[in-house]
Design brief:
Rossmann fold, binds zinc ion, single chain, 3-stranded antiparallel beta sheet, alpha/beta, 191 residues, 5-stranded parallel beta sheet, 19% strand
Length: 191
Amino acid sequence: MLTCLALCFHHKRFISRRKRFCFQSGLNVLIGPNGSGKSSLLKAIHRCKDCDRQEGAPTTYHYFNSEEMNPHKTHRYFKGFAGSVIRARSLFSSHGETLRDVLKSYRPQRGDCFLLDEPEVGHDLSWILKIRRGLDELARSGCQVIVASHHPVFWAKASVIELKRGYLQRSCKLMHRVTACQLPRKQKTAK
Ligand SMILES: [Zn+2]
């Protein structure tokens, strides 16, 4: 499990404000406006040799983004027998179904870290809820999950890391306004 990441010189330039990030077990969510560095942070965790990782124990990282889940591009990413099955199924599947197949094909080990970049892209709400349930299951099995997401479905009951201070507060206000606008007006009841 990843406990802290200290950014290298290169990544400090692309990620808002902070030089060091700490993570919890279970579900962690990175939030912030476009350009604040959420994707860069996930990539830094996944493969930067110069960023300094502190881990509770040796950790295997699994990285997913919507490009990899694109049913037309799976041949680039998934190899071996499990890869053949995913590639064949992806011919008839959506992004969400491909993501589900990929997650199913993993045998997660306790302490593994799953990194997902905007898993909500291209999905309707029912699929987003299914993905959330899948991630909760991974967390329950002892894996760590770090998601970069704009979707509030992933924010609830997660350890939220804001890349831009006040983003959560601003988003909640905005959501409240949208919800209030969409509520039907109270009908006056005739006496
Ligand atoms: Zn780095």
